[in-house]
Design goal:
The protein has about 325 residues and is α+β, with helices and mostly antiparallel strands. The chain is built from eleven helices and nine strands. Helix 9 packs antiparallel against helix 10 and helix 10 runs antiparallel to helix 11.
């Protein structure tokens, strides 16, 4: 399978050692977040982003709408820096909220280029940042070149790891604060807002079992408006696949539950809300199984399975240590 444009852009580190931009001065976490917030406010609409050199990662034929991370836009000039530069986020993350004519910027992604399997950067003040890795991994059966989280993961996927990686940290805007913290990899609040349901509180996400349920519900809600899991776009949008017919009744079932979920929330009926949430999750489980069954190879299935568990487990939360 041919390599996707999104991988070509994000794997630009394969082209050789990256350029070095000026080292940032040390700042407090609050000052750093304020700097990131100014960037967010200056690039709220996609026209402004285009003028600054950003463009959608995914080709027009595919969506890049991750239910917990949004649609990613990239500026290739900033994707290969050797040090954190708060004025140059490599990625912008947009989300299509209902009732708005355009995408809303919900966060930015900073990257630092490193040799493969390096320790996470320490460029942000404090210990709350949660970096994740994109390491080019070629020759994955059924997929070609992908981005893996480590050389070991690339080996697990049957691929060939590259020599450079990009470490990435998300910074969520105050537009939609992440219940997992400002540096978390995922923001499970996003799908709730799209379907006009108030996101659960940070306290609700702090309980292990409730947190897993709320994250599964977030993934279920995402299926009602076109969000797809990582590495799931080609499955969901393959016109020759039986996938769409298989998942349609379950997506319809989740959509049918939305008015009742909203009503339960309006009446502050937590018992009713959670009962309905379990119904939506029960309808989502066959959708999850359909993604895994439609994978292009056992390695693709493994990637999807790991992504689902990462999204549901919340292991990436800011408050957890490195």
């Amino acid at each position: 399978m041919r390599t996707g444009r999104c991988v070509i852009l994000a794997a630009a580190v394969l082209l050789g050692p990256p350029p070095l931009y000026p080292q940032p001065t040390q700042q407090s976490v609050a000052a750093q977040l304020d700097s990131a917030a100014r960037i967010v406010h200056s690039l709220r609409d996609t026209l402004a982003a285009r003028l600054k050199g950003y463009r959608r990662i995914a080709p027009p034929s595919l969506t890049d709408l991750n239910p917990m991370a949004g649609e990613h836009w990239i500026n290739p000039r900033f994707n290969r820096t050797l040090a954190l530069d708060l004025a140059r986020p490599a990625y912008l993350m947009y989300y299509p909220f209902i009732g708005e004519d355009s995408l809303t910027l919900v966060g930015v992604g900073y990257t630092v280029a490193q040799p493969a399997d390096s320790d996470p950067p320490i460029d942000f003040a404090g210990a709350g940042d949660r970096w994740h890795v994109h390491l080019p991994c070629g020759g994955v059966p059924g997929l070609g070149t992908i981005l893996a989280e480590s050389s070991t993961a690339c080996d697990d996927f049957g691929g060939r790891p590259g020599q450079w990686q990009i470490a990435m940290v998300h910074v969520w805007a105050d537009t939609v604060p992440s219940p997992d913290g400002p540096f978390a990899q995922f923001n499970p609040a996003l799908p709730y807002l799209v379907v006009s349901i108030d996101p659960p509180s940070v306290e609700e996400f702090s309980d292990h079992d409730t947190s897993r349920l709320l994250r599964e519900l977030a993934l279920a809600l995402g299926e009602t408006f076109g969000a797809v899991p990582r590495m799931g776009a080609r499955i969901a949008q393959n016109p020759d696949s039986v996938f769409a017919d298989r998942v349609r009744p379950y997506r319809d079932r989740i959509r049918a539950l939305l008015p009742a979920l909203r009503e339960a929330q309006v009446h502050d009926d937590a018992a009713r809300f959670y009962a309905l949430a379990n119904e939506a999750i029960a309808a989502w489980q066959p959708i999850r199984a359909a993604y895994l069954d439609a994978a292009f190879s056992p390695q693709h299935q493994l990637i999807l399975s790991r992504w689902f568990e990462a999204a549901i487990s919340g292991y990436h939360r800011t408050q957890l240590p490195h």
